Known about the structure:
This protein is an alpha+beta fold. About 50% of the residues lie in helices and about 10% in strands. A hairpin with a 4-residue loop joins strand 5 (about 265) and strand 6.
Amino acid sequence: MAQIINQLTALKVLKIKTPGYHADGGGLWLQVTQAGGKSWIFTYSLRGRSREMGLGSASRVTLAEAREERDKCNKLLREYVDPIEHRKRQRAEAAFADAATITFKEAAAAYCAAHRAGLRNRKSAAQWVSTLATYAEPVIGNLSVRDVNVGHIHRILEPIWSVKPDTASKVRGRLEAILGWSKVRGYCDGENVARWRDNLDKLLPRPSKVRRVEHFAALPYAQLAVLMQKLRQQEGPVARALEFTILTASRLGEALNATAQEIDHANKVWTVPGSRMKGGKEHRVPLCKRALEIASAVSDGYLFGSRYATGKPVSDMMMRLMLRQLGYDGITIHGTARASFKTWAMERTRFDNYVVEAALSHTSGDKVERAYARSDVLEKRCQLMDSWAEFCATPPANSAGRVVPLRQAQ
């Protein structure tokens, strides 16, 4: 005899007040308590054992939803699967999955903490945190990393892709790194939704198409001797830091954080550790006579310690302020120290380009050429930097048109 199902209606469910079990059929019952509460119960027998399974309150679970759950349970029974045990396993797996993932904000913090030593300096670490907090976290900060999709990444990047191309490119790379870390740690799976190739390149124009190349404003090298003369007339660590940065053609962060322990006075060499270099590799800088004099003035700690912040070097802001006070507003320290040096070396000397590039700690040549060029050509760079120092100390009238002899470039 066929079992009658779907005996109840939504109206009956609402009106029934009599305490007890009211059948809908197929094992589904509406339970009404003495206090008037109503809930759904599924009854069944499996392997000689009778059980009751709660399906939820009738105030939250509709009749149609209760019937849908009943049908799922009966399907499991036909496969000899206990519905109650099956639900327990599902809930345990869901709880495990929740415990095995983290939000993007948590993943970003964990990634930065794990890779802090690999970042060049505190400023670089702060930039990671700042850009993610500004652009990524408002969109995906509270999302589980397993739920982040390419649509979210596009929503983060699209508003800044054309107006702030350099920042956008860095943010994308940081998103890819964090999501890659999350995948390896087991917090998410599948393809990295922040990768560029065969993914975001279909949604956004190539960075090279939108990036505007803006060179650092530099002082023409012919005017450097006047600036250097003015700097020598100034007292204090800020003027010495500017002078040292120009004489060594170094990056600002490398020079500002230079310490006395990095100076080899006997060999007249300053060794910048890889942790402070843009390329991550240790760099030896030959020091001319004047640069060595500046470095020798300090026996411990930072070469250019701040007078206002104990245990810290002078800031780039203080250096820019001094340039402004000397009448050089509008030029950058990086451009003056490095771009001017490069232009001077190309136009006024016969030193090989690879020597000049090595002085700037640039990588030159293809992979094969670099594989054979193991030397950092320190001796040749010594000659180059001595010539640069001589040029910087020579009044414009006496240095105009002068070309460094070929013998010095050998």
